[in-house]
Design brief:
Layout: H1 2-9, H2 13-87, H3 90-105, H4 114-141, H5 155-166, H6 169-183, H7 185-190, H8 203-221, H9 231-253, H10 260-280, H11 345-369, H12 384-403, H13 407-428, H14 444-447, H15 461-491, H16 503-537, H17 551-570, H18 575-599, H19 605-623, H20 638-659, H21 665-676, H22 681-691, H23 695-708, H24 730-747
Region (Disordered): 288-329, 707-748
Membrane topology: Peripheral membrane protein
Pfam families: VPS53_C, Vps53_N
């Protein structure tokens, strides 16, 4: 077994020889297969070479046959074309010519062959002859001078138009040009400059004439020209170009005869005609039609266009200035009406005159009707003339925006500015009451049993209502003028937008508002002056006990309750300006009250307590000022409350300093610096005068004040000497607490 296994692993010499023979046989078979493959490949190449030769021969033969056919067609077509041209058989020519031209394109690379070149020249000659012949036929049928031949269009000319589509485009354009010129020749004769019907007052006849001509064309020649030529639209467009040129020339010659009504009549009729064209035609010939190319129509951005029919139904305070512009899609806009733009100065001058008369009428009506009556719905309302003015502005904008968005709009804007200022001056500022009729004022000194009397001049309720009405009107004008500026900028050409600026007019109305508020403040302020004067003249040193509020406080409150509710009710629609009035009055009254407070000298301790009680009463009234006398109590604005609290607290601090004992001096000075935080020696001097100190004592106090001023006590480490609760002024502090309790009891 071991021997057999070894023989298996190591074959014998005989086995090796057999293996080598097998390998040699395998190589022999592979070589035979390879030789056969090479022979097959050679055979395929020979077969393929023959097929390629056959393919080339077939292709060349096909090309030759096709070329010969084309040549035959071209030669026959040229002969037929020449024959048909001589016989004016345009119907057959139209189809044949296009085929000949298409066939000739196949011979472009053979133009070096004399025969082919000759055929090409014959085709061009035939085309040229056709063009000349067709133009002559049209000239004969529609001569440039004289009337058209009677009868409808001929079939020959209809077929000639089909041929013109294949010929040079200039032939088609020449046919269109000559036909339109001949068709409109009568128009030039009928509406010459020296004819009565040529003037603007009979402009309707121009448009009526072209309407008849278009109807006549449709009936007689509508089928003669191909539909894609758009001949009806081309006639209308050329009519518009001629009309614009003729009207411009005529208006230059007779410019002095143009009146605004006549101009607007002509413009209205013309824009109506342009709108009719837009409904009837697409405007496809405006860029490629014969004649002068019309100017690109200006994009209309009139914000009132959609409400033009109802423009008279505008409410007083709800103008349509905020409407979005709705631009009509009219490619014919301005194609004729553009000629009126150089003469729009007549319209602008007319609007200048009309607005001047309107302002004068407003002034006369105001004088006749008088100011708004108090206690009525008119009090404090916007003046009706304001709405009338802006309604008229709207009408002007509608008209002008339809005519031009260029320089005429700038000129109209200038007119608007002029009369906005005049309205502000003549109607608003001019009617603000300057001085009121003297009425029986409350004599404060009589209340105090003094012999001196004073007379207060106050505005009547009607005058207060008038001021509020003017203020509301100015506010409305301010807001509407801002909208007006925005809409004018939207409608005018973009390069001109920067020239529209109504800021000056808005500032004018802002000034009217400010002056109106100031008048209301001055009136109430002046009414309170006698009471404050009486306060400063009272013998405060002789007051023996603290009672109810002083008569001067009652007088001030009375005037406030008389004026403020009227003003608030009449400014209900302009709440922010009522708040401004309250703030301005407070800013005026409180400093004046403090100044009169300094004049109350000398003041006893009881007198100071009474003044402190009065000051607190006034503070309470001022805090309640925005809603005083109103059934609906509103919280006063924080900005207003802050002003009242700050100002009246200063007045209370002044009185507390006066009530404090001046001994020891250091404590008094430190408390003054702490409470008032005023480094002005003059203010400190006034406090000393109110306390009734002698000059020698005042000098010492002032010197001490200057010494203590650089290092005023502050913070929690200042010590008890800075407070009125210090042991020394204990009695005075107790009296102040009692006074505060009394004030709280009165408030409840």
């Amino acid at each position: 077994n071991a021997v057999e296994y070894i023989n298996t692993l190591f074959p014998t010499e005989q086995a090796l020889e057999e293996a080598q023979k097998a390998i040699q046989q395998l190589f022999g078979k592979i070589k035979d297969i390879k030789d056969k493959a090479e022979k097959s490949e050679q055979m395929v190449k020979e077969i393929t070479r023959d097929i390629k030769q056959l393919d080339h021969a077939k292709r060349h033969l096909t090309t030759s046959i096709t070329t010969l056919n084309h040549l035959h067609m071209l030669a026959g077509g040229v002969d037929s074309l020449e024959a048909m041209t001589r016989k004016r058989q345009y119907g057959e020519v139209a189809n044949l010519l296009q085929g000949v031209v298409n066939v000739l394109e196949h011979f472009q690379k053979y133009m070096g062959i004399p025969q082919i070149r000759q055929l090409s020249e014959r085709v061009k000659a035939a085309q040229s002859e056709l063009g000349t012949q067709i133009l002559a036929d049209f000239e004969e049928t529609f001569p440039a001078q004289g009337s058209k031949k009677s009868g409808g269009p001929s079939i020959v000319l209809r077929d000639a138009c089909l041929v013109a589509n294949v010929l040079d485009p200039r032939i088609k354009q020449e046919i269109i040009k000559k036909f339109i010129r001949q068709h409109l020749s009568e128009y030039l004769v009928l509406f010459q400059e020296n004819q009565d019907v040529a003037w603007l007052d009979k402009i309707d006849r121009r448009y009526a004439w072209i309407k008849r001509q278009l109807v006549d064309y449709e009936e007689k020649y509508g089928r003669m020209f191909p539909e894609e030529w758009c001949m009806t639209e081309r006639i209308a467009v050329e009519f518009c170009h001629i009309t614009r040129t003729e009207l411009a020339k005529l208006m230059r010659a007779r410019a002095r005869e143009i009146e605004v009504k006549l101009l607007l009549f002509a413009i209205q009729r013309t824009t109506n005609f342009e709108g009719l064209l837009a409904k009837r035609f697409s405007g496809c010939t405006l860029n490629n039609g014969p004649g002068k190319k019309p100017e690109t129509p200006l994009e209309p951005t009139n914000p009132f266009l959609e409400d033009e029919s109802g423009e008279d139904n505008v409410s007083e305070k709800d103008e349509d200035l905020d409407r979005k512009p709705k631009a009509p899609d009219n490619p014919f806009h301005g194609i004729v009406s553009k000629c009126f733009e150089p003469h729009l100065y007549v319209y602008i001058e007319s609007q200048d005159k009309n607005l001047g008369e309107l302002i004068d009428r407003f002034v006369a009506d105001f004088r006749a009707q008088g100011p708004p009556k108090s206690g009525t719905d008119e009090g404090g309302a916007v003046l009706p003339s304001c709405a009338d003015l802006f309604v008229y502005y709207k009408k002007c904008m509608v008209q002008c925006s339809q005519l031009s968005t260029g320089e005429p709009m700038i000129a109209l804007t200038t007119i608007f500015q002029k009369y906005l200022r005049e309205y502000a001056w003549k109607i608003l500022s001019g009617n603000l009451p300057k001085t009121s009729t003297s009425s029986g004022g409350l004599t404060i000194s009589s209340l105090l049993k003094e012999k001196e009397g004073s007379e207060v001049t106050k505005f009547t309720m009607e005058e207060l209502c008038l001021i509020c009405s003017i203020l509301s009107t100015a506010e409305y004008c301010l807001a509407t003028t801002q909208q007006l500026e925005e809409k004018l900028k939207e409608k005018v050409d973009k390069p001109l937008m920067e020239r529209i600026n109504l800021t000056g007019e808005m500032d004018t109305f802002s000034t009217v508002i400010s002056n109106s508020i100031q008048l209301l403040v001055q009136d109430l302020d002046a009414a309170c002056d006698p009471a404050l004067t009486a306060m400063s003249k009272m013998p405060w040193q002789s007051v023996e006990h603290v009672g109810d509020q002083s008569p001067y406080v009652t007088s001030v409150i009375m005037h406030i309750k008389q004026n403020v509710p009227i003003i608030r009710d009449n400014l209900a629609s302009t709440r922010k300006y009522f708040t401004q009035f309250c703030i301005k009055f407070t800013n005026s009254f409180i400093p004046k009250f403090i100044n009169h407070l300094f004049r109350c000298k000398p003041i006893s301790m009881v007198g100071a307590e009474q003044l402190l009680l009065d000051t607190h009463s006034l503070k309470t009234v001022l805090l309640d000022l925005p809603s005083i006398g109103s059934q609906v109590v509103r919280k006063a604005p924080a900005s207003y409350t802050k002003i009242v609290v700050k100002g009246m607290t200063r007045a209370e601090m002044i009185l507390k300093v006066v009530m404090a004992p001046h001994e020891p001096s250091v404590v008094f000075v430190d408390n003054y610096i702490k409470l008032l935080a005023d480094s002005n020696p003059e203010t400190f001097q006034k406090i000393l005068d109110m306390k009734g100190l002698k000059r020698s004592e005042q000098s010492t106090m002032l010197e001490l004040f200057r010494q203590r001023l650089p290092n005023p006590p502050s913070g929690p480490d200042a010590g008890p000497s800075l407070s009125f609760s210090a042991p020394t002024p204990e009695q005075e502090s107790s009296r102040i607490r009692k006074l505060e309790k009394l004030i709280k009891k009165r408030i409840q």
